[in-house]
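Structure tokens please, single chain.
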Amino acid sequence: MTRLMEELAKLPGIGQKTAERLAYHVLRA
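Here you go.
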């Protein structure tokens, strides 16, 4: 989870909050 959030947060235009939300949805899918 944390690793996924860290990777997402590196993407341009994606902040910490967005990364957390995206990671949450990816893991629930």
